[in-house]
Structure formats: C-alpha cells, structure tokens
Amino acid sequence: MIQLTINGLAVSVEEGSTVLEAARFLGFPIPTLCHMEGLSPYGACRVCVVEIGEGARARLVSSCTYPAEEGMTVRTASTRVLRARRMIIELLLASCPQSKIIQDLAAAHGVNQQRFRQEHEDCILCGLCVRICEEQMMAKAIGFRNRGEHRSIGTPFDIKSEQCRFCGACMYVCPACQLRCTYTEPEKAVCGGCQNLAPPCSDKGSFDDMMCYMDPCVACELQGD
Hints:
Ubiquitin-like (UB roll)
C-alpha cells in the first residue's frame, strides 16, 4: 500500500494503481471519455485531468495514465482543473457537437457554449474502437493511421480487413456513433436540454484550491429541498 493525499484527505491505495483508479475506489468522481474498464488506459481526451503537486510545481496530468505515487498530493476539482476540463469539453464539442455523451459532459460541467469553429467530425480519436477491437475482440481489424492533423482510424491501406467479424463492438463504444443530439447550427452547439443546475459554490473564490467534488452536490440537494 502507498500513502497519498486526495482532496486534502490522507488515503492508502494499492501500489500500481493509477490516480483515476485510486480516486474512484475512494469515492472521488472523475469524468472520463476515452477510458473504459477492461481496456488499457490511453489518455487521449484529457477529460480526466487532475492537479498534482503543490504551489508553483503543481501541474495537470491525465489521471487515467498517471500512476499513484507515495506522498503524492492530488486535487480532482480545483479551479484550475475545472477550467481545464471545461476548455477540453468545448474543444470536443467543436469536433463532434452532436455526440450525446459529449453533450452530457457539457451539461454536467456547466458548459453552455463553445467558442471554436465547428468541424462536425465523425471521430474524436479517443481510441476506444481500436482498443476494444484488439484487446477484447482479439481482432486488430482497425488501427490508427498517419500523424498530427492527418491522423485517422481505419484498416491498413483502406483495404477491407479479413479479421473483422462485424461484431459491432467498435460502434458500441464510440462516443460519436452512439445516440446523437439533433442540433447542427453552430450557435446551438450546446442544446442545454440536459443542463444541470450549477452548484451554488462552484464560482466562489474562497474555494479556489478545491471546489465541490460531490456527485450529487450535497449543497445542491439541500437547496433543492
């Protein structure tokens, strides 16, 4: 077991755990998009970003790929973390604004607009389809091609793969292929139909180092009563 601090609480977790696994095991919610239980961590979307360290040396890391270390200090919901997550969600919305999963993330994190040029792409390169094809279906029918802005997912040389069994697992896990929202106009990128009430404490400057990480927020539940 290793000792670390998460959200100001001293905790013990098994050696070899990632920060995401440690936080979730202890009940600290961290949103994810490209992560799925049973698949290897990939760290593509960065939605699971957390802050580690203290003072000027504090930095943001993807919790699904970063190992929990002895003496580490982790904050899962600081102002810096929440700001980074909202920016990431805005970028995801610009790439795939009709994804219901991304719309739900936007609603849960108070993102009611996105300021970037919409691409209406069919793929956000989360790698879920590639990993489930290789690691669960044992097929390796698809994979990543090229680099940078030309990076895409498909079969080698765009030739139909003889390994593909048409199992549908790739479509099942794909955030872009699942249930879609209907808005296509840039000014309506975030429909708001699933918008949650903003936590009353989320914009208070007195909690800069650690915002509310409860899900659901206890203050919100009491306010609703």
